[in-house]
Specification:
With 135 residues, this protein is an alpha+beta fold. The protein has four helices and five strands. Strand 3 and strand 4 form a beta hairpin.
Length: 135
Amino acid sequence: MITAKLNNYRQSPRKVRLIANLVKGKKVDDALDILNFAGKRASLPLKTLIESAISNAKNNFNLDKESLFIKEFRVDGGAILYRRMPRARGTAYPIRKRTSHVSLELESREIKEVKSSKTKKGKISEKKEKATDIK
């Protein structure tokens, strides 16, 4: 299990989760393609986080990029910066500037070679062909 973390990213977790949910469970190559074309601000830091995890996998575990997929992409709330905005009659209005903690887990899938065994559909069509030959 390969991990990478991005702590105190200055964007709300709700906005970051939109992008993280797009790439959960996908292959690493597919996830990077999706993030290249996503029109959200969070896509660039998440892309660099995935690339960091890929380099961790190559350097520490000698794993190929093709066999990796995203097992878990979790976005949690971080520290909240409290600010004030002046409002009417001298009152102060609170503003909460939210941050995110993003954690990523990659896992390796063994590349399985496709066996030449027949699928269910192949077997069913084969039975139909035998039935028509008999008549």
